[in-house]
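In the previous chapter we treated chains in isolation. Here, by contrast, the input contains two separate entities that must be folded as one system, with a combined length of 822 residues.
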Amino acid sequence: MKNAVGRELPERIGEYVVRPYQGAYAAVPSTEPVHTLRTAGKHVSGDKKILPDLAEAVRAVGLKDGMTVSFHHSFREGDEIIGQVLTAIREQGIKGLKFAPSAVVNIKNPSIVDFVKDGTIDRIEASGIRGELGDAVLSGLMEKPVILRTHGSRPRAIEAGELVIDVAFIGASAADEYGNATGQIGPNACGSLGYSFIDAASAAKVVVITDNLVDYPCNPVSISQQYVDYVVAVDRIGDPEKIGKGAARMTKNPRDLMIAERAADVMAASRLFRENFSFQTGAGAISIACTKYLAERMEQCGVKASFALGGMTAAIVEMYKKGLVRVLECSQSFDAVAARAIANEPGIVEIDNAVYSNPFSKGSMLDRLNFGVLAALEVDTDFNVNILTGSSGEMMGGLGGGPDVAAGADISIVCLPVVRGRTPSVTKRVFTCCTPGEAVACVVTEAGIALNPRHKQYQELKEDLEQAGLKLVTIEELQQIAESLTGVPKPIETTDRVVCVVEYRDGTVIDVIREIKRRDV
Amino acid sequence: MAEKEIRLKRTSLYASGSSPVNMIQAVFYNEDMLIYDLEDSVPAAEKDAARFLVYQMVKHHRPKDKYVCIRVNGIYSEYLEEDLQAAVRANPDGIRIPKVEYAREVQAVSVRIAEIEKKIGLKPGKIELICNIESYMGVLNAMEIAQADPRVVAMAVSAEDLTASMRAQRTKKGLEVFYARNAVLLACRAAGIDALDIVFSDIHDKEGLKEDTALAKNLGFDGKTCIHPRQIDTVNAYFTPSMKEIKYALRVLAAVEEGKKQGKGAVTLNGGMIDKPMELRARTTLAQAEAAGIRTEGMVV
């Protein structure tokens, strides 16, 4: 069968029943009460939650074969919690787990691949997979397909009972012995723990893991003691160099700067660029530069924003400090400056990822967003966006919040160069469709700005950009420019076997990734 | 006779023939003149490959809205003949010759180009020349060089080799090249060709670039070579004509138009004669205005 973006899908993939994507805003949620495994607890004065080590915690939570374990991704590449926990699980001979981290996790030593190969893990549900794990999955590592969900879709799936977490392991840069935990303070501060809120509230058992046990009560608190079953202190939660790296730097690549400046020009030209507007710019090289250009334009025009949303960077914190933005709503913190700012600034606040992006709640902050700036690996002439797979079919990233932001923001701006190296990034058909074109307002490249005639804001945005004298091109022109420079690459060859399911934010299937045929194997 | 096409040269950017990535990216910036380089940026071992790449790029992928140049290797280098063979066949708007010191050098290159043009069936004299003046001898002979050959449409001053040849110290303020800039500029004016100013080397100093570009514009230059893509928009902005200049240009062209209608040989404005260079200047001003997004149609003058 074909879904609404023209992707051919099987009706079932093993036990997974495919619900085809029908439109960016077409699906409706169930009217059933939200799902949770959280149970009542009973504690009396003098009870202790602290356990001596992870092995003891694995035993205490009653982890069994086939259960689902979750982690957050807030320590990013520096994470050592996942490796330690999975090692403790393996040592107890527990097999066939579902691994459900909140986003892309690319841990190296040990690698997730090792835990799949020895049978500890047999299913993965995440926002993306890359590196060694990504390559291995695309080459057919796993029997069951990996399910990829956006940031907004994960809490939705949990509340819909599609992702049922038995044990949530939550790393914290500071915690007390009764389970109050945070990422905002301590030597390995990572900032917001917004992705763990839903896990803490929905899992059957919750274990907090820290390398920085503080006196009771831990303050500030992100994960409350009322949800936490056990606390474990370990020597290290991660590599401080990688968790706590400083402000993300401004790119010097003149092409990226040009794209970033154009994206800021698009925002500044729009009629929505007015007092109390809102924006999300993200953490890529172009995004950070775009944030700085946006700040310049706000200063020039004397316009202030009501809020900035999503993942925070030092560049946005700087805007807050200049009084350009009233509140920073942080679902995650991308650098050390942003991580520590939550504890120090009253207007920089940690928010639940579900509040940020869940499409099936009683209101997510994305619904109130004016501008969303998004990165992409590929865009096609239907404005469909690929943020997962690279030019040779390799896994390059995660869905993140991209599809959520595109659907939520009034104006979603996708930034990318028309060519990367020897391959075109504006194509006739993206290899993997992650964000439907319907939700993309415009594509900004070094070769011009293309507006999507099918987008709800098209007419107004067109008028505004023309009024500002910004050069508009069609997406077909961008595709032709790209193709004229690189030629048409040979299509990536795949087998029929589905190795990843790409879910849209509403839980329908927008695309699948099939096993890549490797010529060198 | 067809009117001479106005080709703006506010900004020039080099893209190294040994860097395909730079060559592709350079197309997308806002420079008026894009120069594919075979000279300084290409190591000796890569000259062949660069020549081939630049040929293919200009022949098949040249940007439509830019003045496209190829900078060949030096007049006395072993590469010049092959460079010219490839460059002329690629059919760019112009060839930029480095380190020109004498008029006879330009003439010799022009003759060679003409031979190749003839051989491949290109209209003779089609390819233009831009002479880079990079030594004290070039500055001293600027007048002769500017008028050496009808192909020469512009001269560009280059400060780095020039100061070395003068034994001067290169400074940010650039007093040591002030005379040379003016000497080349005056030679261009005398020959009725475009004058292109030196690069401003500190890519991080935006204020310095603005000051230096303001000076170039005030001195009378038509454009400036950029050392980095990030300089282009700033330099272009400084070469945007003022409202006063635009209105004067519109009055000049209106008078010329009126003169044509009435079949007059000589046209005057405010009692002064309008000659061909004045008309050309006015058209250039309007082209600069248009490039900066200023709409002059229907403007009250």
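Strands of chain B lie at 11-16, 33-37, 67-71, 94-97, 128-133, 152-157, 194-197, 223-226, 267-269, 272-274. The radius of gyration of chain B is 19 Å. Compare these points with the single-chain example from earlier in the chapter.
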